[in-house]
Each structure stands twice: as C-alpha cells, then as structure tokens.
C-alpha cells in the first residue's frame, strides 16, 4: 500500500464493510435559492408561520437540521 492510504475492512458474518480512507461519495447539496428564502420570510410576514418555524425552515434548507 502507498503512503497515506489506510485500508481497513470489518467482517461480521456475511457482512463486510470497507472502511478505507477513500470515504463514501456524497452528492453535492443543492443550493438554496433566494426565492425559497423569500417565500419563508413572506410567510412569516403574513403570520402564516411563527419566527421559530421560519428559523427551523431556513436551517433545514441550509442543511442545519
């Protein structure tokens, strides 16, 4: 193995997990559009949602919750 590469495997029964340093590829997160943010703020302004709900929605859009 080359320097800096870690290769590890865990075998349990018929299951095998590769824990090498390459990691698991993740799809890119879609960016949050300004329209989505503005829609949430508009719902807050119209009192359709609370400030806490708006905060939760904005956090969820940004991947925080």
Overall description:
- The chain is α+β, with helices and mostly antiparallel strands and 65 residues long.
- It is 35% helix and 12% strand.
- The chain has helices at 34-45, 51-61; strands spanning 9-12, 15-18.
- A two-stranded antiparallel ribbon has the order 1-2.
- Helix 1 runs antiparallel to helix 2.
- It is elongated.
- The two termini are 39 Å apart.
- 2% of the residues are buried.
List the helices and strands and how they pair.
Layout: E1 9-12, E2 15-18, H1 34-45, H2 51-61
Antiparallel strand pairs: 1-2
Helix pairs in contact: 1-2
Q: Please give the share of residues in helix.
A: 25-40%
Class by SSE composition: alpha+beta
Would you count the extended β strands for me?
2
H and E order: EEHH
Low-confidence stretches are: none
Main beta sheet strand tally, sense and closure: 2 strands, antiparallel
Measured by DSSP, the beta-strand proportion falls in: 5-15%
Strand order of the largest sheet: 1-2
Please give the radius of gyration in angstroms.
Answer: 21 Å
Count of DSSP H/I helices: 2
Q: What general form does the structure show?
A: elongated
Mean pLDDT: 78
The separation of the N and C termini measures 39 Å
């Amino acid at each position: 193995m080359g320097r800096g590469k870690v290769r590890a495997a865990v075998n349990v029964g018929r299951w095998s997990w590769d824990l090498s340093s390459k990691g698991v590829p993740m799809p890119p997160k879609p960016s949050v559009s300004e329209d989505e943010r503005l829609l949430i703020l508009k719902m807050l302004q119209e009192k359709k949602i609370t400030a806490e709900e708006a905060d939760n929605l904005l956090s969820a859009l940004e991947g925080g919750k």
